[in-house]
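Table S2 (continued). Query chain:
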Amino acid sequence: MSTHSSASPDSPSPVPPDATAPPGDAPNLRIASPNEVTRPTEITRPPAVPRPSGPADAAAVAVGGASPPPWLRTLASQLGDTLVTGHTRPGPRAVDARRAAVLILFGAGPDGPDVLLLERAAELRSHASQPAFPGGAADATDIDRVDTALREAAEEVGLDPAGVEVLAVAPPLHLQASHYLVTPVLAWWHTPCAVAPVDLAETSFVSRVPLTELADPANRVILRYAQSDLLSPAFQVHGMLVWGFTAGILDILLRLGGWERPWNHSAVVDHPPTRAVPATSPPPPR
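Corresponding output:
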């Protein structure tokens, strides 16, 4: 049985005050969390969004494709440490963290390249209604974290692992709040299958979200966390508000893959949503 419902690795984690940028020479690639202020910088050029360019590509969009498209191979080759930031880099505290993995699965759909996301059930005790990549905690029977990611995806949404080609395994990220060591697994869905929630007590919704919709400035917002009044990127797609760890990775991948388009950073939404407080009626006269 999937362990994703009781302790999801797909949640934001606290950040030390000095953890403001990832290591290396890519200072704009970051994963945001509720305790980190992230104001994405403007990009200087529009992205070259992959589109079907001929009959072969059009067929691949309709039914998948045996080989990953060149843009995805390039993205996979550049992955490396780009998802690791100062606050997610494993340190001594991660020694006893529970191992987990998430599957970042790209496919070719009728609206172009897409990524598989799910939404957790509203009745869960933790991370209720939170959009996420398929994934969860490792089992003792898992050979490695690729095995973990594929098994969890099969248990959560009915994915057939035989239709998936793994392209890259990123270094694990330490999520301090949940004390998980999460390995992102990047893959290509060469033979798509029908997917849906396997257990509605865990997963309420499954969707293949086109990258063009994620990159659309109309679907991008800044999320303000009520408990800290800090900001991070988020996406409003397919009836979901994608935030936290998942949105942080998507934000990085869109930028790394050249998909990101200039968007309105002043579009701010609150999490949890702000509720109107009814005005207090004056006491009746005596």
